[in-house]
């Protein structure tokens, strides 16, 4: 796309330079006024067939011949660029990119998913089901072709490049998730993303255990090993199948009307300073508070009706999705 812009810029610059050359030539060689020289240049280049303003001497006619050849060359090159632009599908790509850019410009607090492999697809599905805004960055031609036929906002390119992340709206993003196939690639993405937005929350896939400290040093907030999680899942499914089935239904957002959420108590929330009993969270919202993470990062192991809710408390809640949204609004969490 950049090459097309450069070629169009070259065409415009060439036309301007030929016009300037023609004006200067007729002014210097034939003594034409500037407006007459411009008029003569235009009718010569466009070959409209109008007569000469005044008779030209031999040098002026030679200059006119040169000008005609330059004009024909520019027209031929311009035609070639236009044919290539249309025949290779560059026009459709240009239109698609402009539409995508407008969609991304309207996003705020969105997720950026780097890589649409198996893990990236699963993450995208979950974000879609939860109706969370996200952008996928993918460089594979076949996956890009598939994604173009879906409602997913696609940015084609290498997630390690600054311009690609900037185009994906990294300055306004809430979180970046990188699921590339090697730890080296993921480390590079994390470093690049942190350099562009130091406040960005970053989650990354871990392929080799030895790379975990490097990913954290690079700036990742969350490092997840699919092998570790997969092994843990297999063992838990064998030992506690009903519990795993329940969690699957909650996390996948299918089959059940309940969900998990993290809800923080703000200073101006009506819940601030009240006990669990006084807040009537269970009665009014039908939400269960599993635990509370205090502002000092400590968890309350046992919650009772006398537990006091304070500013900065993070409630780990279980309940109906719509009721959780209402509780989030009451808590004053944005």
Automatic annotation (TrEMBL):
Annotated compartments: Cell membrane
Membrane topology: Multi-pass membrane protein
Keyword Transmembrane helix: yes
Gene Ontology biological process terms in this record: potassium ion transport
Transmembrane segments: 7-28, 34-51, 58-77
One Pfam family of this chain: TrkA_N
PROSITE patterns hit by this protein: RCK_C, RCK_N
InterPro entries: K_chnl_dom (IPR013099), NAD(P)-bd_dom_sf (IPR036291), RCK_C (IPR006037), RCK_C_sf (IPR036721), RCK_N (IPR003148), Trk_Ktr_HKT_K-transport (IPR050721)
Domain (RCK C-terminal): residue spans on this chain: 248-333
Key words of the record: Membrane, Transmembrane, Transmembrane helix
GO CC aspect terms: plasma membrane
GO terms of molecular function: monoatomic cation transmembrane transporter activity
Main location per the UniProt record: membrane
RCK N-terminal domain residues: 108-225
PANTHER family: POTASSIUM CHANNEL PROTEIN 2-RELATED-RELATED, POTASSIUM CHANNEL PROTEIN YUGO-RELATED
Protein's UniProt name: Potassium transporter TrkA
Organism: Candidatus Schekmanbacteria bacterium RBG_13_48_7
Lineage of producing organism: Bacteria, Candidatus Schekmaniibacteriota
């Amino acid at each position: 796309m950049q090459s097309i812009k450069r070629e169009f810029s070259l065409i415009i610059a060439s036309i301007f330079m030929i016009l300037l050359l023609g004006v200067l030539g007729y002014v210097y060689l034939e003594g034409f006024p500037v407006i007459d020289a411009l008029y003569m240049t235009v009718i010569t280049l466009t070959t409209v067939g109008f007569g000469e303003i005044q008779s030209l001497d031999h040098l002026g006619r030679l200059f006119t011949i040169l000008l005609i050849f330059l004009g024909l060359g520019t027209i031929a090159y311009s035609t070639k660029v236009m044919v290539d632009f249309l025949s290779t599908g560059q026009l459709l790509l240009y239109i698609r990119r402009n539409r995508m850019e407008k969609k991304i410009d309207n996003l705020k607090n969105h997720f950026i998913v780097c890589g649409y492999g198996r893990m990236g697809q699963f993450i995208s599905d979950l974000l879609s089901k939860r109706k969370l805004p996200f952008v996928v960055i993918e460089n594979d031609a076949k996956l890009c072709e598939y994604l173009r036929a879906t409602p997913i906002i696609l940015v084609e390119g290498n997630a390690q490049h600054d311009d690609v992340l900037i185009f994906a709206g990294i300055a306004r993003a809430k979180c970046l998730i990188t699921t590339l196939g090697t730890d080296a690639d993921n480390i590079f993405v994390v470093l690049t993303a942190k350099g562009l937005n130091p406040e960005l929350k970053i989650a990354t896939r871990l392929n080799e255990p030895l790379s975990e400290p490097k990913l954290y040093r690079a700036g990742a907030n969350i490092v997840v090993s699919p092998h570790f999680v997969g092994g843990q899942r297999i063992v838990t499914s064998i030992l506690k199948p009903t519990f795993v089935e329940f969690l699957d239904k909650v996390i996948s957002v299918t089959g059940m009307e309940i969900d998990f959420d993290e809800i923080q108590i703000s200073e101006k929330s009506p819940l601030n300073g009240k006990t669990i009993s006084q807040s009537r969270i269970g009665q009014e919202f039908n939400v269960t508070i599993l635990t509370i993470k205090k502002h000092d990062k400590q968890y309350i192991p046992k919650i009772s009706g006398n537990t006091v809710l304070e500013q900065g408390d993070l409630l780990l809640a279980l309940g109906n999705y719509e009721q959780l949204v209402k509780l989030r609004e009451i808590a004053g969490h944005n």
